[in-house]
Amino acid sequence: MLKKDLGLFLLILVVGAVVAFLNPRFLSPLNLANTANLIGLFGLFSLGEGFVIITGGIDLSVGSIFALLGVIFINLLVDYSLPWPVAVLIIVAGGVVLGAIHGFLVTKVKMQPFVVTLCGLLIYRGVARWYTDDGTAGFEFGQKFPALETLTTGRTFASDTFAGIPNSFIAFVVVALIMGVVLHRSVFGRYLFAVGKNEEAARYSGIRSNAIIAAAYVISGGLAGISAIYLAMYTRSISPASHGNFYELYAIAAAVLGGCSLRGGEGSVMGIVLGAILLQVLQNLVNLLGIPSSLNFAVMGGVILIGVIADMQLVRYRAYKANEKKRAGIVPLPAAAPGKN
Amino acid sequence: MQRVTEPAAPFLELNGISKTYPGVAALDGVSLSVSRGEIVGLIGENGAGKSTLMKVLGGVVEPTAGTIRVDGRDYPALTVNDAINSGIAFVHQELNLFDNLDAAANILIGREPLYGGPLRLIDRKALHAKVQPLLDKLGVDFKPDTPVAALSLAQRQLLEIAKALSLDARLVIMDEPTSSLTLTETARLLSVLNELRRDGVSIIFISHRLNEVKSCVDRVVVLRDGRVVGSLVGETIRPDAMIRLMIGRDLKSLYIPPKVPPGAPALEIEDFRTTAFPDQEVSLTLRRGEILGLAGLVGAGRTELACAAFGVDRRLAGTLRIEGEAVTIREPRDAIARGLYLVPEDRKRCGLHLDFSLTQNISLPDLMTYAVGPLISPAAEEKIAETQRHRLNIRAYDIATEAGTLSGGNQQKIVLAKWLAMKPRVIIFDEPTRGIDVGAKSEIYQLMRNLADNGVAVLMISSDMEEVIGVSDRMAVMQEGRISGFLERDRFSEHNVLQLAVGKTVN
Fold it and tell me: What is the pLDDT of residue B1?
C-alpha cells in the first residue's frame, strides 16, 4: 500500500517538474494557491467516494447532489434569509439523508449500487432544474457572509509575499486526516475492508455488513453535502443544468488512481488524496501548456489508463519476484516448524 | 427375425485403472465393464473413489495406470473430446445449465443451427424444431422455448438427459440424479432410464439411495477405498448386502478419550425446521465437554442445521438454548455474543479473509476487545495473534503473513484461532479436516478434545467415516433433513452409521 502511494507521489513530482520546466508559471504562488483550492474542492468528496468504492459499491450521484443541495443552499440564504450556520447544517444533513437513502436501497432493498446512484444522478439533477425553473440561482448583489466566505473561499497565512493556503485545501487536509484515522486505525475502517473484501466471511465473523455498507454511503452523502457548500461559495451562482456535471467521475478517477479497487476491499486515504492532487495537476497542465482545453478529459483518461496498466504490471512483477524467491527457498520458515507446509 | 446370439462386446471396459495422488491412492486397479443397454449402479461411501472414477471417464483426470476401452477402441487416457466423441455424457449433481436461456438453447449450446452468412445469426425455428423430438422422446411436459429458470429440478434433470441424447450419448453417467427430486419425479426419471435402456443406451447410476438403486439397475458395483470390492446382480441386490460391501475397511483408532465426563446441556436445539427441509423437525442436545458427531450422507441437511443455529440462514421454527437459557439468534453476531461459534465448511469463502493477515483475521470477530474507544490497538491485536499462532502451531513466517498464502491446514487453524481467542461455549465444526493433510488433522482432533475437556461443547459435522467414528463421543445421524438416530460409542460402526444414513433403523 505504501509502495503504491509512493509511486503515485513520484508521478505527481515528475509531472509537476515537467510542467514547471515548460511553464514556470506553474510554481507561481497564485497558480499554486488556485490549484490547491481545486484540490481541496474535488478532494473532499473523493474521500467519500473512496469509502463507498472500498465496500465494493459506487456513488454516481455526487455531481447532481451538488446541483440540488447548491440551489437549496442559495435559496435558504437568499430567499429565506436563514443564518448561514443553520443553512449549512440543513445542507449537510440533506447530504446525509440522501446517502442514507442510497444505503438503504443498496443493503435492504438489495439494489445494485450503480443503479441506485444512477437514479439519484438523474433525479437530483432533474429536481434541481425544476426547483429553479431551470434558472440560475445566485446570491443577491452585495450579499456578504464574511465568516462563511473566510471558511470556504478564504486563504490562511496570506501576505504580500505569500498567496496563502486556501481554506478549502486546509479543510480537505483536516477531513483527510480524520478519514485516514477512521479507515486505517478504527474498528469501523477494518470492518469496511472486511466487508468489501469478503462480505460472507465478514458476516460469519459477526459483522453487521449492511450497517457498515450503509454507513459508507452516509459518509459519502455527508461529504457531498459539505462539498456542495464549498462549490456553491466558490462559483457563487449555480446553473443547475451544468453545476457539478461529471464531478462524480473526478471522484471515481481519484479513488481508482489512488489504488481503490472497484471490486472492493482495497484502497487508502493517502492514495485518494494523491489521486485527487494528480487530477488537478493534470488539469493545470492542460491550461498552462496551451493544450486545447477541449482535450482536458482525454488527457485525464489517458493518464488514468496508463497509470492503472502500469500499476497492474508492477503488481504482477512483484508477485513474480516473490514467487521466484519462494522457489529459491529464501523465505525462511520458522525454526520450530520445519517439515511440509 | 434374427437374434444376435453372441453377446455384443461391452460398450465400456475399464481395466486396472489406478490414480494416485501424492500419498493417496484414489483409485487402485479398478476394472469395470458396462454392456450396451445395461444400467450399472455404482455405490460407495463418501471418498470411496466414485468421483475420481467419473472424472477419468469424463477425460478430466488422467489415470496413472490401466487401460480404457470404449466402443472397441483402446485409450490409455481419455481426453474430454474423446469422451464426448465416443458418446459418454454426464448428468451432474450440480446441474450445468444456463438458467437465463431456454430449454432448446441449453440443449444445443455451442451447436446452434445458424442462418447462413457472416453474422452467424441463430435460426431459432430450426433450433426448436431440432429439440422437440428429443423432448418428445423423454415425454417431458415443457416446451423448447420454456426458460430454464421456470423448470423444476426434475425437469432440469430431464433437460440434462435430453442434452446428453442430443450428443448421441451411448453411455450416460448420472451422479446422484434423484437427490433433490420428489417421489413422483423420481419415479418419472427411473422410467425414462428404462426407456433409454431399451434403446441400447448404457447408464452408470451413482446414488446413495439404495432402494432406488435396487429398483432400477441390472447390476451394482461397489467401490471402497478406491477398489472394486464386489458386485451384485439380480436378486442379490439388496440394501443390506450393499451396505455390507460398502463398509469393512480398517479404521485407524483416532479416539482420544475425554478426561472429564460430559456435564450439563450446553446447546439444545428444539424442533428446528430449516428452509432446506421445511417439513422436518430436528432436535438435539449437546452437553458440555462432549464431542457429538453429526454424521450422514452429503446433502442430509447437516450444514443447513448448523447455519440455522448460527444465524447465517433463517430458521422456520424452533428454539435454541445455550447453557439452559433460551436465546434469539437472528444473525451470526447474536450467536457469537452468546459464545456459539461456527467453523464453516467452506473456509475460503466463509471462514477467512484470504488477503487479510493472520492478525487481522484472528482479531476480526472480537475487534472491540482490542480497541481503545473506536480505535484498534495494534499492540493488543498483534499480541493475541502471536499467542494464538504459538498455541495452535500455525506455520506462517509471521503474524503479518496473508492467510491465503498458507496451506489448508494452517488456514483452518486460523479459523479456529479466531474463536479460541474468545470465550467459546459451543463450537460447531463443519467438515473440520476437509482438504487438510494428515498431520494437521490430528492436531485439530487434539484441539477439539482439549476444548471439550475444558468444558466446551463440540458439535462436529463430518462426512468422513473414519473421522466421525474415531473422534466423536456420541453420534447423531441425519438423513433427508431429519435425525434418523443417535449412537453411543459402544454401538459405533460403519454398518450402523450407514444404516441410519440411508434411513434404516439399527437394532
Answer: 41
Check B395 against A202: CB less than 8 A apart. no
* Structure confidence by residue, pLDDT tens digits, B208-247: 788 888 888 999 999 988 899 989 998 888 888 888 888 7
Answer yes or no: is pLDDT of B180 > 70. no
- According to the model, what pLDDT value does residue A332 have? 44
Chain B environment of A331 (Cβ under 8 Å): 397
Strand ranges of the sheet holding B202-206, from the earlier edge strand across to the other edge: B88-91, B171-175, B202-206, B39-43, B219-224, B227-233
Provide the grid cell at B268.
439444545
- C-alpha B478/C-alpha B496 separation (Å) is 12
d(CA A257, CA A275): 5
* Contact (Cβ atoms closer than 8 angstroms) between residue B84 and residue B61: no
Residue B5: the pLDDT is 40
Candidates A181, A188, A197; nearest CB to B355: A197
- B202, containing H or E segment: strand B202-206
Question: For position A339, what pLDDT does the model report?
Answer: 37
The partner residue sitting opposite A186, judged by closest CB among B342, B352, B376, is: B376
Contacts of B280 (CB under 8 A, 6+ apart): B273, B274, B301, B480, B481, B482
**Grid-cell match 487530477, residue found:** A279
Q: Considering chain B, what percentage of its residues have pLDDT values greater than 70?
A: 96
Q: Chain B partners of A203 at a C-beta cutoff of 8 Å?
A: 312, 331-332
Cβ–Cβ of B374/A187 closer than 8 Å?
A: yes
Q: How far apart are CA B283 and CA B476, in angstroms?
A: 10
What is the ipTM score, two decimals? 0.86
> What is the tens place of the pLDDT at every residue in A120-139?
999 999 999 999 999 999 88
**Residue B240, CA distances (Å) to B210, B232, B237 in order:** 9, 12, 9
- DSSP labels, A297-320: HHHHHHHHHHHHHHHHHHHHHHHH
- What does the alpha-carbon distance between residue B452 and residue A10 come to, in Å, rounded to a whole number? 56
Q: How near does any CA of chain A get to the CA of B404, in Å?
A: 13
Q: Chain A residues with CB inside 8 Å of B375's CB?
A: 181, 185-187
Q: How many CB pairs under 8 A join A and B?
A: 83
- C-alpha A63/C-alpha A84 separation (Å) is 23
**Cβ separation of A191 and B418 shorter than 8 Å?**
no
Torsion of CA B30, B35, B37, B42, to 10 degrees: -20
β-pair type (A137-138, A237-238):
antiparallel
DSSP string of A256-313, one letter each residue = HHTT--TTSS---HHHHHHHHHHHHHHHHHHHHTT--GGGHHHHHHHHHHHHHHHHHH
Residues of A in contact with B359 (CB under 8 A): none
**A188, A205, A334 member nearest B364 (Cβ):** A205
Write out the three cell numbers for B35: 454392456
Residue A28's Cβ-count burial label (10 Å; 0-12, 13-18, 19+) is: middle
Q: For residues A201-219, b (16+ Cβ closer than 10 Å) or e, as one string?
A: bbbbbbbbbbebbbbbbbb
Binary contact (B410, A341; C-beta < 8 A): yes
Q: Which three cell numbers stand for residue B467?
A: 473421522
Chain centroid offset of residue B354 CA: 23
CB contact under 8 A, A201 and B351: yes
Q: What element of type H or E holds B104?
A: helix B103-107
How close is the nearest chain A Cα to the Cα of B320, in Å?
Answer: 18
Q: What's the residue count for chain A?
A: 341
Q: Do A331 and B354 touch (CB under 8 A)?
A: no
Residue of A nearest to B307 (CA): A204
Mean pLDDT computed over A200-206: 95
Sheet holding B73-75, edge to edge: B24-34, B12-21, B65-70, B73-75
What would you report as the CA-atom Rg of chain A, rounded to the nearest whole angstrom?
22
Q: Rounded to whole angstroms, what are the CA distances from B321 to A339, B190, B265, B309, B341?
A: 43, 44, 9, 10, 14
